[in-house]
Each structure stands twice: as C-alpha cells, then as structure tokens.
Amino acid sequence: MKYSDLQVWQKAIDLVVEVYSLAKDLPQEEKFALTSQMRRAAVSIPANIAEGHGRKATNAFLNHLSIANGSLVELETLIEIARRLGYLDGQRANHVRDTTAEIGRMLNGLKGSLNPRSPSSRTS
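The structure corresponding to this sequence follows.
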C-alpha cells in the first residue's frame, strides 16, 4: 500500500487545500504571520504521514504520525486564534475543527493499529 492510499493522508490533503483557501481571506497584514503559520502546520500533516510511511520502519512511522498529530493541534489552535480575532466566522472555523477532529481520530486509529502495545490493537 502506498501512503497516498491511506484515507487519513487523503483527508489531510483536502484539509491543506481548505486551509490555503481560508488563508487567502485573512488580512494582508497576517500574510507573514498567521497565514504562513497556518499553511505550514496544515502542510506538515500529510507530509509527515507520507514521510513516516516512506521510512519503512514502524517506530519511525509512529514518530511521524505523532508529529502530524502535533501539527494538527497546532492548526486547530491557529484556527481558534483567527476566529477570536474576527478573521474567520464561527461556521467556517467549526467546519475546519470538525475536519481536524476527524483526522485526529484517523491518526489515532492508525497509530493504534501499528503499535502492538496499544490497547486498541490488542485482541481480547
């Protein structure tokens, strides 16, 4: 299986496209601050999924999935900052948060399936 076959990677790519679209609507003075940070965090999610998959070692993949998850929560924080500053309406922010929550669940599921010490990967 290729990394691009992973549903979580596909969903993360969709999130990148959405964040780039959303970031275009932020004020010009945020171009090198919030806009740039949001884009970097979003891009980091599928990039780390792909890089970890490409390492061909379970521990490396788990580490990169953890990094992807960190970027995901960073993005959630940046979205909330943009919302509180009045740059994003609540509906758009909620849509992105719903997407990040879904990706977070998918990342946790994938990590659980790869980690033999994880309670979710044990059979009873």
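The chain has one domain: 3-116.
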